[in-house]
Each structure stands twice: as structure tokens, then as C-alpha cells.
Amino acid sequence: MKALCWEGVNELGVEEVPDPQILNNQDMIIKVRLSSVCGSDLHLLDGYIPAMRAGDVIGHEFLGEVVETGPEVRRHHVGDRVVVCSVIACGRCWFCEQGLYSCCDNGNTNPGIPEMMWGQSPAGIFGYSHAMGGFKGSHAQYVRVPYADRVAFTVPEGVDDVDALFASDAAPTGWMGADLGEVKAGDVVAVWGAGGVGQMAAQAAQVLGASRVIVIDRFDYRLDMAAHHLGVDTLNYEETDIDGELRERTDGRGPDVCIEAVGMEAHSPHTVAYRWEQVKQQTRVMETDRPHALRQAIMSCRKGGMVYVLGVFAGWIDDFPMGALMNKGLTMRSAQQHGERYIPMLLERMSRGEFKTAYLMTHPMPLSEGARGYDLFKHKRDGCVRAVFSPNGDGRFTTR
Amino acid sequence: MKRTTMGAVVGSVVAGAVATRFLSARQRKWPMSTRAQDRRRPRWHVVTINRPPDEVAPGGRLPEPIAKLGDEVEVQVNRAVGDRGTALAARLRREPSGITGAASRLAGSDPLQAVRAALRESKMLLETGEILQADKPGTAKHTITGRPLDLAISRARGEGRL
Ligand SMILES: NC(=O)c1ccc[n+]([C@@H]2O[C@H](COP(=O)([O-])OP(=O)(O)OC[C@H]3O[C@@H](n4cnc5c(N)ncnc54)[C@H](O)[C@@H]3O)[C@@H](O)[C@H]2O)c1
Ligand SMILES: [Zn+2]
Ligand SMILES: [Zn+2]
């Protein structure tokens, strides 16, 4: 089959690779209809996620059709249209029972690697390095889905493919930020990053009753998209002082909940500081991750508020404002997404027209254009928010 | 014959079995690892299994992956701390050390790797009914610079901090 593979830092290529097989009784094989890029892939592409091998298939946000089921798959049948959670969780360990699916004890086949990096091993993730299990990704014609009854979800009749696609990763990630960030009615919520994840977090905050949601980025086309589709306030950090603006918009208090949806490759408008941060990151010793947005979120957050980190970090950061966190009594939380906890509810909301996702797809493409899709996405060119590939089609599909 | 201990109680019997008196965290002896005997006791490696003890060791029978290690290990089965199911613990009777230890680790023949893998696999079997297999066949290209990672991956169920 054809698949889009990571070949090295900033190198992608479509290759002929072996078809996946059922290896466990609870596995199934999906014929991939749609598979989206995600900001997390940029961290792989740029070489900041360790444990990648040349030839690894990437991609983790996908939807498709069941073509083969293992003997112990009960909930799914050949021909079903399913959306698959990016996080591979067993659904039966203590962590899964607590709803902490991305902390699953049984979803990662390489637990020794993350244990050395982080002390304990999180769940597996499709196409996201050997530290996360080395599972092959979804930018391929077919993909093996382990723990199929727990990880894949049947898409309800009335929900369009492109809407349901983002129930795989971007939408549940954003929802988790607002939910576990404990957004309450009346709260002011600030979101750093107007990518798919930040926009989904902003929408979730609105649904949970926030009185004002402010999205921060430097790309006007992304901010305009968020304002147009969600009706949120927006701030361009290259044009204004974010801390000052946030104070004004919260009558001097600071946002109740600050959601960071940027991650380890944050940009900074302060050129000298930014270059220095990049140098430190390249050493991999002074820091592995650039946390500019995270620092700003901590500094701006109101006293006693919550900072929820959705952006992916891999190692350690420098100049972490621990004093602000401690003295302001902040709570900081984070996770890889606990998608299995939210996907059925999100699909339900989509079927009622209460949660919008399809608009994130700006570039439908065939898989053969995978490298170009990532190039547009990475450099934020041509209005790209999410490039979506159709590994078994010609890329000519639209939203509704 | 295999000697198995139950907390302070020395249980006994056939290979691959433990006594069926499962102790609570309160009844168990802490710390688990002591230097009493040879000044360098191999440490216990423990997983919490989200199932009750009589499912983990029904009639004292150990889960297959651990039972397979036979006499190489001592095993304990008890109630997990905080009542989170069952604590399955194992330790080598004799741990390789020094140069032989390091060499066997690289060669993938370190018995400790087998202990960690057996604990993890017992847990998976009991919690999910299967041992999750890594994706095969691989698509990665094996390069010289990729060798250390290839090695880390091939040992990844047996290494770690467990
Ligand atoms: N927790 C999870 O499970 C999970 C799931 C999916 C994605 N993610 C992570 O979420 C992050 C965002 O993903 P995405 O798909 O939206 O990526 P994206 O690249 O589309 O969007 C990131 C946005 O952040 C903006 N940005 C950069 N520096 C900034 C700064 N200092 N202040 C404000 N905005 C800044 C960029 O301009 C960009 O628009 C990534 O780190 C990704 O890895 C996490
Ligand atoms: Zn993602
Ligand atoms: Zn689990």
C-alpha cells in the first residue's frame, strides 16, 4: 500500500510499504478515507520528538471504513464508518477507568522508552514515534487499529465525514482543555494558538458557558477564521501587548482559564530573545522545548486561575516562571488528549449541529501531495489550517 | 522447585504458584527490598493489576508469563496499595552485575528484562485479555545512525524503570 513516511528531519515521502495485519484478536483494519495533518506532526517533522526512524508512517487524525475485524471485535463490523481516536488506550486499566485514557497502562508497546524519559509511560499514539509505541500512522491506505472496540467509534448517519474526522484528535483535545481546565459559566478564557486545537478549545469554552473567549496568534487569517466561525475575540501578538490587552478585557483581573495550544515550538515576537531560545533548543541540553506562550499564559492568568497545557512538550524548558505559578496560587494541568472520554459526546453534538469542525479543513488533497500539504501547513501559507489527505481517493472532496 | 513469598509469609509449593492468602498493604512488610541476606538484595519489580487477587492467581496459579520464568524469580501476589486491585511483584534470585550484567543487557539476555516484560505482559493479559503486539511488519529503514534506537525498541518492554 501507499503511505506517507517520515524520512528524516523535514523530509517526507510517499512510499510503498507492507499492508498492515491483524496481530491481536481485538484489532481491526481500516481503509482510510480521510487523514489530517496536526500541529503535533510538525514537532516530528522538525526533529524535536525523539525515537523516530526513517520510514515510519505518520498521521494520527483519521476516519475510514472497517475492512477486517479480529475475532474478538464486537462493536464494529466490516463496512462500518468509524472515526478513530489518535490515542491507543485499552479501556480497562485503572487509568482508563478514571477517564485518563492517554495515561493508559496497556496502550504502549515500548514502555521502556518513555519510562526513561518521563518516569512512567503514557498510552500509545498512532504514527507518533517509537516512544509512543511505534504504531504506524494513518497517512496510509490502510491502518491497524488495536483495541478496536475501545479506540474506534461508529460515526452517526447524519454526520459528514469531514466533521467526524476532527472528532479523532483536534476536537477532543480542545474539549479536554476547556473541560479539565474547569471552564465555568461566566469565565473569561484566553487561548494561545489559533490552530485547529486552539480553535476547538475556544469553541468548547463557549459551549461550557464562558462569557468571553479570546484567541491569540500572529496569523490574521487564522484569527479571522476563529472570529468568523466562532464569534470569539482575537488578539494578534505582533500588533499588541497581550498582557495589557488581557487585563483590559478582564477588567484588570486576568483570564480565569488560560489554555496553551501552541507547544514546544512557540514563536516569540521579541527577536533577540527568540533567537536565543532557538539556540538553547538546538543544544538539546539547555532546553528541548521553547515555552514562550506557556510563560505568557502563566504571567497573564488571574490569581487562583487555571493554566491548561494542550501544546505538546517533550523534554525540559528554561526560565519557567515558577514564582508566578506559586505566588498566584495557579493550577497547571496538561495531558495528551483523553479522546475516548469525549468522542461519543462530540459526535452526538455534531449530529445535532452543536459543534463545528469541518471548517478547519482548508486543503483537501490526495496522499501523493502529502509533502506539499505539510509544507503549506508548517509555513502557514495559502491560508492553511488543516490539510486533509484521502489516501484512497483523488483528494477531490468537499465539506458537505 | 520454586519458592514464593507472600509478604512476610513464606508460601511454597509447585512451580508457578503462590499461596492464596493475599495480604493487604497494611498487613504487608515494608520496605519490600531489604539487604538482610546478602547486602545487595535484588529489588522487587511490581505492577498493579486492575483485577482482584483471586483472578490474578486463582487457586494460587500464577499468570502464564510470570510462571514461565520458573525458579529464576521469587513472586508475591497481594492486595495493591490503596485497594487498586492486585500487586504482582517479582524479583530475580540472582541479578547479573558488573561487566557480565552490562553485556547481557546489551545482548538482550539480561534476565531482568525478562522479569519486566513478564510483569507487563501478565498485567495486559489480565486487564485486557491479550498481549498487545507491536506493529509489524516494520516500515522503518535500518540505518547505522538508527542502531541505538533499533536496540532501544527491541528491548523496550524489558527496559524502563519498572
Ligand atoms: N494534547 C494533545 O493531545 C494534543 C493533540 C493535538 C495537538 N496537540 C498540540 O497542540 C499544539 C497546537 O496544535 P495545532 O494542530 O493547532 O497546531 P498549529 O501549528 O496549526 O497551530 C499552532 C498555532 O500556534 C501559534 N503560535 C506560535 N507561537 C505562538 C505564541 N507565542 N503565542 C500564540 N500563538 C502562537 C502559531 O502561529 C499557530 O497558529 C501543538 O503543540 C500540538 O502538538 C496536542
Ligand atoms: Zn494531533
Ligand atoms: Zn488502559
Give the SSE map:
The complex is a heterodimer of chains A (400) and B (162).
Chain A: E1 2-8, E2 11-16, E3 28-36, H1 39-45, E4 56-57, E5 61-69, E6 81-84, E7 87-88, H2 94-97, H3 112-118, E8 124-125, E9 142-145, H4 148-151, E10 152-154, H5 161-165, H6 170-180, E11 188-192, H7 196-207, E12 212-217, H8 220-230, E13 233-236, H9 242-249, E14 257-260, H10 271-283, H11 292-300, E15 306-309, H12 322-327, E16 331-334, H13 343-351, E17 361-366, H14 370-378, E18 386-390
Parallel strand pairs in A: 11-12, 11-14, 12-13, 14-15, 15-16, 17-18
Antiparallel strand pairs in A: 1-2, 1-4, 3-5, 3-9, 3-18, 5-6, 6-10, 7-8
Chain B: E1 4-6, E2 9-11, E3 45-49, H1 53-56, H2 64-67, E4 73-79, E5 86-92, H3 98-107, H4 111-128, H5 147-154
Antiparallel strand pairs in B: 1-2, 3-5, 4-5
One zinc ion binds next to helix 2 of chain A.
In a few lines, what is going on in this structure?
The complex is a heterodimer of chains A (400) and B (162). Chain A has helices at residues 39-45, 94-97, 112-118, 148-151, 161-165, 170-180, 196-207, 220-230, 242-249, 271-283, 292-300, 322-327, 343-351, 370-378, and strands at 2-8, 11-16, 28-36, 56-57, 61-69, 81-84, 87-88, 124-125, 142-145, 152-154, 188-192, 212-217, 233-236, 257-260, 306-309, 331-334, 361-366, 386-390.
